[in-house]
């Protein structure tokens, strides 16, 4: 469920738990497309038959593919209705905790850790966890930075 706020309301959301995004499937086609886009064709990602005998029992998504999916998952979680300039400012910390097997479903939870003013806007530091359906360990844990400008 998307939390929709105004820019003025956003400034008071430090500590807010935004809940969860929807589940999305990370299928082999998405993995192959990411491999083509990044020129990372390591067999554990794209060679389905060989990957079945590998350490994960099948092909897995690239860690950076899973991390990149934080963008569409994040946009499901927070909308600042009167703000049209939104920037992914960076990452303070990222860990790839466990693999995402081809065909798995992932979703993200997010909590706004801090909000600081920057020239013309605010910066949110957000604790994000991307989890894999049915797995005890998360796939990705990240401390992300987003900027919203008036």
Description:
The chain contains 6 helices and 8 strands. It has helices at 7-10, 28-38, 43-46, 48-52, 63-68, 70-77; strands spanning 3-5, 17-20, 24-26, 78-80, 85-96, 104-118, 121-132, 138-149. Strands 2, 3, 5, 6, 7 and 8 form a 6-stranded antiparallel sheet that branches. It is elongated, with a radius of gyration of 17 Å. The mean pLDDT is 97.
Key attributes of the depicted protein:
Thiol Ester Dehydrase, Chain A, two-stranded parallel sheet, 8 strands, 6 helices, six-stranded antiparallel sheet, 150 residues, alpha+beta
Mean pLDDT: 97
The percent of residues in helical segments reads 25-40%
Number of helices: 6
Query: What order do the helices and strands follow?
Result: EHEEHHHHHEEEEE
Shape: elongated
């Amino acid at each position: 469920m998307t939390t929709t706020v105004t820019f003025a309301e956003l400034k008071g959301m430090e500590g807010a738990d935004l809940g969860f995004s929807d589940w999305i499937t990370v299928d082999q086609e998405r993995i192959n497309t990411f491999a083509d886009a990044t020129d990372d064709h390591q067999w554990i990602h794209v060679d389905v038959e060989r990957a079945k005998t590998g350490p994960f029992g099948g092909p897995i998504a690239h860690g950076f593919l899973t991390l990149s999916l934080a963008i569409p998952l994040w946009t499901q979680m927070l909308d600042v209705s009167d703000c049209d300039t939104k920037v992914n400012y960076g990452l303070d910390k990222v860990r790839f905790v466990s693999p995402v097997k081809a065909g798995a479903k992932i979703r993200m939870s997010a909590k706004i850790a801090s909000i600081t003013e920057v020239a013309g806007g605010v910066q949110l530091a957000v604790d994000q966890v991307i989890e894999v359906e049915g797995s005890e360990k998360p796939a990705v844990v990240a401390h992300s930075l987003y900027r919203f400008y008036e």
